[in-house]
Amino acid sequence: MNHKTILLVEDNPQDEILTLRALRKANLANRIDVARDGQQALDYLFKAGEFVGREGPDLPTVVLLDIGLPRLSGLEVLERLRGDARTELLPIVILTSSDEERDRLKSYQIGVNSFVRKPVDFAEFAETVARLGVYWLVTNEPPLVR
Hints:
Layout (H helix, E strand, L loop, with lengths): L4 E5 L3 H13 L5 E5 L2 H8 L16 E4 L8 H9 L9 E5 L4 H10 L3 E4 L4 H18 L7
Parallel strand pairs: 1-2, 1-3, 3-4, 4-5
Helix pairs in contact: 1-5, 2-3, 3-4
């Protein structure tokens, strides 16, 4: 059984569907959980709020994080995750439609592992997401300390 999990943090239902479709089309048989705002993402990761008693691994293998989220922005989530010893090494990929240089710079300053702009074309978007999934779930070797 494959215990590697992806947490997708995305508030746009269309982008959520496209991302899930692209990951499944890449034949990644991994569990994909979804949080739809920044606070829900933190609750999921720290097993708080509605996720107290959540089953499954303590942390996902990778978090695909949008920037423009309700309640807490993706950058606020990233800051909190990097500031907590439990999640400071958790691989986080910003997956956003933002082309703002300040978002990219701030993401890297806070400690994001990768910043990926969502392509507008669906085929290109699907390919980008598939490559992300394969890299973080198959190719990348995370630290043993978790």
